[in-house]
């Protein structure tokens, strides 16, 4: 029930006006970039993670102490995707940016918004398997060659989190195959323990399982072949209906082991429930660990890669670049911007951030993160046995998370796969029409 004050029209208008003014002030700050009368250069640093503002504040302080001629202004906004696109419309790209390396980043990279870092020395320090994930999202090819438009600063890993204490109490070993995973879920259920705490009130929380299942089971080159088919997906050589039936069925099977109220629980309640030991496992990746510990600093957390098949050797870890670093293509201060990026990518800075945020270092010679919650995923990451998030390959116009939400609630795999092919075809048709119209 809403309070009277929340429904009063005047107060609503005031709040909207305040929000607009705040957004305008933020964008104004983001667009400013100058060299002062004292010769000091000011860099605008677009930083998209609100939970990491304190980390970057400390990094900037240390950088400025070592580089007194450069001032860095950190700008963190509530809706970074909207903010960055607003700045692009105004032709005011920040000097240095952090962005989540996802499909939205790929679109911006292909539009040649970011500088090419291919020839920078710092680029050679990155784990090639991690850089490949960034490159696969999209690059600028202004001169006919693929550029390096962002460097990975922090990576996450999407596995299954589990409670080691609950596993031990029920005599269950960490599963290495699909059959063992289902057997573990059956054991917990028989013992009155919730196998998975699920949070389908937030539709996106069905995605982590799907990207692991689909990413492992799909044919090599699936998305390249799908894009080549254009809008004629039905009856094509590859399609979701033909190639994702096993993944969809396994998605439904996993969610059949959720608690009864899973459709009305959200991500925040899931983090708290797992922190409080209310389930044996949690279908979320490393990115959830800080939030779980915020609820219970002493939470028992372990991790393991999804055992998608009955071949234990086929296990891989789905990994995304949680934070990528880019430089605006037309920054008036390229030397200073590159100096700041070089500092951000230095081993000490990357390691400190990884430990604070429970992420994986993307550097080739990095010391593995010693967080025990990551111990089950770290060897795969360090060995390069990783694949990217397949949902980053699916256009944002395809309502994937809502379709996955319906899939796991209804169990109707046929309708899900048919709808996914249909939605992909619609977007492909629009894209082809737009290109022909140019």
How are the SSEs placed, and which strands pair?
Elements: H1 4-7, H2 9-31, E1 41-46, H3 53-66, E2 70-75, H4 80-89, E3 96-99, H5 103-110, H6 128-137, E4 151-158, E5 160-162, H7 164-169, H8 178-190, H9 207-217, H10 222-228, H11 240-243, H12 245-255, H13 267-275, E6 281-282, H14 289-295, E7 302-304, E8 317-327, H15 334-344, H16 347-357, H17 378-382, E9 386-387, H18 400-410, H19 413-436
Parallel strand pairs: 1-2, 1-3, 8-9
Antiparallel strand pairs: 3-8, 4-8, 5-6, 5-7
Helix pairs in contact: 5-6, 9-12, 12-19, 13-14, 18-19
Signal peptide: 1-35
Protein name: Sugar ABC transporter substrate-binding protein
Keywords: Signal
Explain how this protein is built.
Pfam families: SBP_bac_1. Keywords: Signal. InterPro entries: Bact_solute-bd_prot1 (IPR050490), SBP (IPR006059). The protein has two domains: 32-155 and 321-378, Periplasmic binding protein-like II (D-Maltodextrin-Binding Protein, domain 2), CATH 3.40.190.10; 158-319 and 391-434, Periplasmic binding protein-like II (D-Maltodextrin-Binding Protein, domain 2, 3-Layer(aba) Sandwich). Helix content is 45%, strand content 10%. The chain has 19 helices and nine strands. Strands 1, 2, 3, 4, 8 and 9 form a six-stranded mixed beta sheet that branches. A three-stranded antiparallel beta sheet has the order 6-5-7. Strand 1, helix 3 (53-66) and strand 2 (70-75) form a beta-alpha-beta unit. The longest helix is centred in the last third of the chain and has 24 residues, at 413-436. It is globular and about 70 Å long.
